[in-house]
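Cross-posting from the chemistry board since nobody answered there.

I work mostly on the small-molecule side, so proteins are not my area. We synthesized 2-acetamido-2-deoxy-beta-D-glucopyranose and want a rough idea of how it might sit in this target. Sequence and SMILES are below. Is it possible to get a predicted 3D structure of the two together?
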Amino acid sequence: MLTRTFYSSTLFSALAAAAPTPQVPGYTNADASGLSNQLPTGPVATVFGPDSQVSAIEISVASAPPRKSSDVTGVTSHGPFSGTPTTSGAVMANATLAQSIAPLPPNPTATYYNVNGTLLNPAPAPYTPAGGLGTNGTEPRYMVNSDFDFESIALGLYQEWIELDLFNNGLAIFSDEDFLAEGLTAEDRTYIAFMAIQETGHATLLSNMLGEAAPVQCTYNYPYRTVREFIDFNQKLTRWGESGVWGFINHLDAREVGQMLSQSIATEARQQMSFRQMLGLHPQPVWFETGIPQSWAWTYLAPYISSCPESQTRLAWQNFPVLHIVNQPNPNRLSPNDTKPYEVSGNRTADPSDSLIPSDESCLNLNVTGYNCGPGITRNRSEPLSFPGKQVNLTWDAPGQYVGPNNSYVTSTSAGSPQFVAWVSQLNLTYTPLIVTGVNAGFTYQPASAVYEGDPAVNGTMFVALTDADLLLTPFNLSMINPHVVALGLYQAG
Ligand SMILES: *[C@@H]1O[C@H](CO)[C@@H](O)[C@H](O)[C@H]1NC(C)=O
Ligand SMILES: *[C@@H]1O[C@H](CO)[C@@H](O)[C@H](O)[C@H]1NC(C)=O
Ligand SMILES: *[C@@H]1O[C@H](CO)[C@@H](O)[C@H](O)[C@H]1NC(C)=O
Ligand SMILES: *[C@@H]1O[C@H](CO)[C@@H](O)[C@H](O)[C@H]1NC(C)=O
Ligand SMILES: *[C@@H]1O[C@H](CO)[C@@H](O)[C@H](O)[C@H]1NC(C)=O
Ligand SMILES: *[C@@H]1O[C@H](CO)[C@@H](O)[C@H](O)[C@H]1NC(C)=O
Ligand SMILES: *[C@@H]1O[C@H](CO)[C@@H](O)[C@H](O)[C@H]1NC(C)=O
Ligand SMILES: *[C@@H]1O[C@H](CO)[C@@H](O)[C@H](O)[C@H]1NC(C)=O
Ligand SMILES: *[C@@H]1O[C@H](CO)[C@@H](O)[C@H](O)[C@H]1NC(C)=O
Ligand SMILES: *[C@@H]1O[C@H](CO)[C@@H](O)[C@H](O)[C@H]1NC(C)=O
Ligand SMILES: *[C@@H]1O[C@H](CO)[C@@H](O)[C@H](O)[C@H]1NC(C)=O
Ligand SMILES: *[C@@H]1O[C@H](CO)[C@@H](O)[C@H](O)[C@H]1NC(C)=O
């Protein structure tokens, strides 16, 4: 009966789409008269194969390269670290040449400009315009080619390992019924399990490009209590996983590594979008996905790693103090304006929003368009999670806290007193003034800046930092913000 209702309403909209009147305002001259846009009619199928054969041969699966970790083996214990660190702080080079990178004028060779589209240089071969990197016939070497590459890919590997454990963890601790109660089916669970398996491939790829010192899987400490909080944490963790890579991928020395990495981060991007859909958020409320510096990705990730094995390769990136969004919009609320202070499951930077609010305040299982936040391909939110001009209250931790594997990293900042809130979203970095109201406390207002007209910059799961200056930075030199960062947070804008 349900099927039939659905069928006839789809048929109706298909006919409507073929109608000559414009279906989209301002879009005229859309002549569909040549189309026969109709669906098949008649009874639906009731008999399902196997009842038809196609031409095929018996073929065995070729042997494939081994994975670094199978899907479900590996470390499975979880919880906070309670021991004593045997080492402390990020791994350091023998010598450090300056406190920060000095700005320079544009590279003198960056002058190419083509006024008329004709080729300005001899072509090295037919159909092969001059230029490009790694295009002159040199054999590709799929290995990291500098300390920068090593540390970036090692960070990426720490991220792939937690994803492998995390996706499986939610499936292991919550039952089919727990998932169903939040609108996620057995097929959705199978999909999440598949995403975990994707991580075994990503971890293998990154390990191979690093060599024998590749970091291994660790033990983790997760912040969720319900399926929805698990999904919320996943959409946050994959957000910084993806953006962390966009931030460094074009700075890698080894273009070969960048090639492989982009082909794995494309699937991570799909994971992030799917977790948003499972949370009933708009899947991609932005035109561009943003990039962040490595030290930001490490700051977000480290608090969820409780311990790593003795011989683990350590990272060189900085851990910044936590910036708490006091009134972080709660995507579980039908009225996000009503979010209470600190309505999150814990006090780490990316802890998920509280899903255990009263059911008459929750948007889950609410069958009202514009308010329903159950899993869906996309959802309208009549009351937005946040909006330009919203007062955003902030508190932040002092540096010197022990975080990360074996509590062996220490949060630090080299910035002076905080004056600005930096909003990193899409292609943009926008600063708003910080109004300090007390010790490590203050507020600001969400900005209204746009990327291009029609695309407000701040939307989706995005990044905020407290800074001591409002330096002009763009996506390719954003990491120059690091010496100015006081604390780092994650904002649930839409
Ligand atoms: C660092 O310096 C020490 C002492 O000068 C030297 O023994 C060591 O080989 C250096 N390490 C690297 C990786 O260059
Ligand atoms: C296109 O521009 C190049 C470089 O300015 C110039 O040398 C060339 O003559 C132009 N070609 C045409 C067809 O205008
Ligand atoms: C080929 O290109 C690479 C950079 O992609 C460069 O380092 C190398 O010197 C070039 N080799 C030759 C033979 O031109
Ligand atoms: C964020 O995106 C959603 C979905 O497109 C939209 O409804 C909302 O207005 C956007 N928020 C802002 C601040 O532009
Ligand atoms: C971290 O802690 C674990 C568990 O206590 C221990 O097995 C491991 O050796 C420690 N790692 C380091 C690097 O100290
Ligand atoms: C949320 O707060 C803003 C600012 O006060 C207000 O404009 C908006 O109408 C509120 N939304 C609802 C649904 O009350
Ligand atoms: C965060 O919460 C934990 C557990 O409630 C507590 O032990 C810790 O002191 C808190 N940390 C900060 C910086 O507030
Ligand atoms: C949702 O509401 C609509 C209209 O009120 C109703 O037709 C539909 O059966 C409801 N769906 C569920 C799953 O309750
Ligand atoms: C969803 O939101 C869009 C943009 O705000 C609006 O045009 C559309 O009518 C809404 N759809 C429904 C079903 O409410
Ligand atoms: C934000 O802080 C201001 C004062 O600093 C306070 O009046 C306001 O209630 C706070 N808002 C929220 C949502 O916590
Ligand atoms: C946002 O980024 C775009 C693209 O780089 C740029 O053109 C625009 O000026 C930026 N907007 C703001 C408000 O910074
Ligand atoms: C970052 O790049 C922009 C150009 O995109 C430049 O205007 C700015 O000065 C650079 N910032 C620093 C600190 O070098």
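Reply from a structural biologist on the board:
Welcome over. Reading the output above for you: Residues 347, 397 surround 2-acetamido-2-deoxy-beta-D-glucopyranose (ligand 7) (CB under 6 Å). The helical segments are 2-17, 147-173, 176-181, 186-210, 227-248, 255-278, 294-301. Happy to explain the token format if needed.
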